[in-house]
Amino acid sequence: MAARQLDKYYEIRLALLLRRLRESWALFAESRIGLLGVAIIVFFALLAIAHPILMATVWEHEVYHPVIGFDASLVGHPTPPSARHLLGTDPLGRDILSMLMHSTHSEFLLGILAAVVTVVAATTVGAVSAYFGGWLDSVLMRLADLVIMMPALSLYIVLAALFDLNFTTLAIAIGLVSGLGATSVIIKAQAITISVKPYVEAARGAGGSHFHIIVTHMIPNLMPLAFLFMMFTVTAAIFSEAVLSFFGVLNIRMSWGIMINTAQSSGYLGFGLEYWWLLMPAGLSITLLCASFYLVGRGLDPVVNPRLRSR
Amino acid sequence: MTKYLTSRLFQSAGVMFVFLTLVFVLVQSQPGDYANVFLDNPRLTLEERAELRASFGLDRPAYVQYALYVKNFFKGDLGRSFIHQRPVVHVIMERLPRTAMLFLTATVVSFYLGFVLGKIIAWRRGSLVEYASTISGVFLFTIFLPWLGLMALWLFGLELGWLPLGKFLTPRLWSDAPFAANHVFHRLLWTAFIGGGFLIAATFFLNARRLPGRGFILLGLAAMLALAGWGWWLSSGLAGYAADILKHMVLPVAVLTAVSFAGTMLLTRSSMLEVLREDFVVAARAKGLSEKAIRDRHVARNALLPVVTALMFSLAGAIDGGVITESIFSWPGLGLTLLESAVVGDMPLAVGAFVFTGVFSLVAHIAADVLYVSLDPRIRYS
């Protein structure tokens, strides 16, 4: 009997969630820039999925491997785009398209990990400091002041020199920096308005513990706003990774930034557009993927922020 | 206002203390320590190793090291650079003016440009101009900065040959100059500072008096200042050198401006649209004020506040943009120093440059705060 009731409870929750998602999507779809962003993301996601499939079927491992591949059948690398290499080869004889697609995969993982860390950090800090207030609040907010003030890229460079940064550690660092800074301040402002809502009072009156109130009443209501900032974090993470790889301070084997770094350090920049396939694909990919997540964030704005809705 | 600013200064001092502590914790938690660079040598005996570590003070307990670190920071001692073989502070002081110059010029130009353009596209909403500038704004806002820098370098430096290819001066011109480059740099900074400060003060003074024709007075004043500055530079015999530096500055400033004005522009636009709905705009229209007066004095003035707030949030980002720009254009400022020393493992210099970048950012924040307080009467009188 009890199990059946539980079943129903989750069915209701699920139905409510689905309805809310459908309404949100309708609101989101009204903004064209958000849809444009989704389209770009889907395009890159397809690239990322296609890479292992292509590697397993059409592309030979020795020639098309993104890091150690080399095409010995062609001389004079970098070679311009051809039927064999759709985007040409780089100075080390590797296939640009394969490098590009392989990197897409890791950029997504980096962005998602950083975004998840941001959301966990920002909602925790925001909810805790709004709910408890007092000295805990002022300590966390001064910390946020510090993080807002700190030039993040300079911090990552120093971190990369002190420690060994790879994709995972960099994602955690980026997530913490963006989650403890401006995001947590904005989330806290929202959390303050929630913490005075009647249902929080009611939960407290019914004897709910602090942990229970924060986890079941505050955090779910902060999630939409946090989701919005996830998008901006992904943009920041992809951008930071690309810049740091371009500087060559990360311990990463292949990424878009490293592709540009290779082109620059082997001296092909001076030829400008003559060797466009060395610079353009990677540079445009970074710009487009960063822009797409930013656009999705802008499209989500009216969903999260009712004040901005047109109706 | 002074009360608010004093409390803000105290807060900043606290933030700075936390910052110093955080840097110390980071340096302490690195695998190994500063002396590692020298310990690779297999010929060192155990005693020599211990001595070497002791000479860095690394044999003492962490809290003593922390106290020494804070004390030394306030004495202006950040250790010795391994590659430059001189105090870190000297290296930083040599390069700070160059970064300050680049950063200040780019911030002022991009803020002004972004605000003016945002004002215009907000007034022409729905037009082709608005769509074009919004789309190019988003594109510039998210563009990969190193890539844009490299492209600009290739186009203007190499293909067209209009501007120099990086560095901040022409070595051939300067090889027999009887003074250091910073001699000219400091004077350039002071010129900008005095001229800008004087103009801002004059604007505030004239606006407070509501004198008629103050636009013309300001214009005349600016022309006189420019003439005086021009005359001083020509008579000092440094003008050729200063022009060389300015020529090297054009490309970095342009690239930095291109990426950062877009954010201000988009924000000004949406902020203007918010203010347009207010009642006082209708009242101003009903009074029969000209469109230009409504736009500039009623809407833009009130739309300025959120834009300045956002400017404060983006200062750290602008400093980061400076690091990227400096490395692309080999501009030997603080950012390039940070990057180079981090790459070669000169940790005292890297950490020192980072600490100074943080302090620089803090000072910029305080300056932006003062600007905000002077713009928003609600803070001034509360």
Brief sketch in words of this structure:
Chain A has 311 residues and is mainly alpha-helical. Chain A contains 12 helices and no strands.
Can you walk me through this structure?
The complex is a heterodimer of chains A (311) and B (382). By secondary structure, chain A is mostly helical. Chain A has 12 helices and no strands. In chain A, α4 crosses α8 (182-195). The radius of gyration of chain A is 23 Å and the shape is elongated. In chain A, 44% of the residues are buried. The model of chain A has no long low-confidence stretch (mean pLDDT 84). Chain B has 382 residues and is mainly α. Chain B has helices at 2-28, 36-39, 46-55, 62-74, 88-123, 128-142, 145-159, 171-174, 181-209, 214-236, 239-276, 279-287, 291-328, 334-344, 347-375, 377-381. In chain B, α5 (88-123) crosses α11 and α7 crosses α11. The N and C termini of chain B lie close together (8 Å). The model of chain B has no long low-confidence stretch (mean pLDDT 81). At the A-B interface, α5, α6, α10 and α12 of A face α1, α6, α7, α13 and α14 of B.
